[in-house]
Amino acid sequence: MSGALGDMWDYLRSSEAWSGRNGLPALAWAHLRVSAVAVLVAAAVAIPAGVLLGHVKRGALLAVSVVNIGRAVPSFAVLALLLPFSLRYGFGLGFWPTIVALVLLAVPPIFTNTYTGVRDVPADAVEAAQGMGMRGGELVRRVELPVALPLVLTGLRVSAVQVVATATLGALVGYRNLGTLIVTGFTSPNKGRMLAGAVAVALLALAVDAIFALAARLLVPWRRKPGRWADAAVAGPDGGAAPAAP
């Protein structure tokens, strides 16, 4: 293990690690690009479908069964199945097979959370909004989506982290990303590249998770837990309730 760590340190100190198309910055950018495109495409498909079915509360069993195919079929198997078709129809190696496999992986968490969030909006809130004259799209925009937003963001967060971690498989079909370091390093006696690529993917996934956690705190401020200063503001100096202002 110490030898592998030494190899990684030597690799990270070399100019090869930081320059050129095989350097960490270029490979990390390619990794982020394919991951971002996959999550955006999955969100564009899954969120409208989840909102619609959650609003009408119909067809959920069939829809969930279909989108869960992305979970049931391993991403590597999807890549292997898509590669011949991608070559046959001129899409080539690399980007497009990787995108399709990652979109299939990303859709289920986003769809399931969106559908559940919209479906489980309290009936009292919906009835009150309808009593105020809201119908259809207005009800969805002003009541159901805001209530469902925390679950939608959680689905996006889970999908994004899964996609970043799984995008390494793209290296197996010719897409150069951080997985390229892992694949090439695996067959080399020098494991420095492989370990550097694995650490880079892990750090990237943690960074994506932290970004989505921060976004959730900013976009859903009403779910923040009150801090100690909020507790102090409502407690008196002896621990009892603070006196009311005159």
Structure in words:
It is a single chain. The protein is mainly alpha-helical. Helix content is 73%, strand content 0%.
Name the structural class: mainly alpha
From the spread of the alpha carbons, the general shape counts as elongated
Distance between the termini: 69 Å
Largest sheet, described in full?
A: none
Average pLDDT metric: 84
The tally of helices reads: 11
| CATH level 1 name | Mainly Alpha
Radius of gyration: 24 Å
Percent of residues in helices comes to: over 70%
Count of extended strands: 0
Beta-strand percentage range: under 5%
- Low-confidence blocks of residues: 228-246
Architecture per CATH nomenclature, i.e. the level-2 architecture = Orthogonal Bundle
Give the full name of the CATH homologous superfamily.
Answer: MetI-like
- The total tally of domains equals 1
Q: Find the CATH topology.
A: MetI-like fold
Question: Secondary-structure element sequence?
Answer: HHHHHHHHHHH
Topology of this protein?
Elements: H1 2-13, H2 24-56, H3 60-67, H4 69-72, H5 75-88, H6 95-119, H7 123-131, H8 136-166, H9 178-186, H10 192-219, H11 228-233
Helix pairs in contact: 1-10, 2-6, 2-8, 5-6, 6-8, 8-10, 9-10
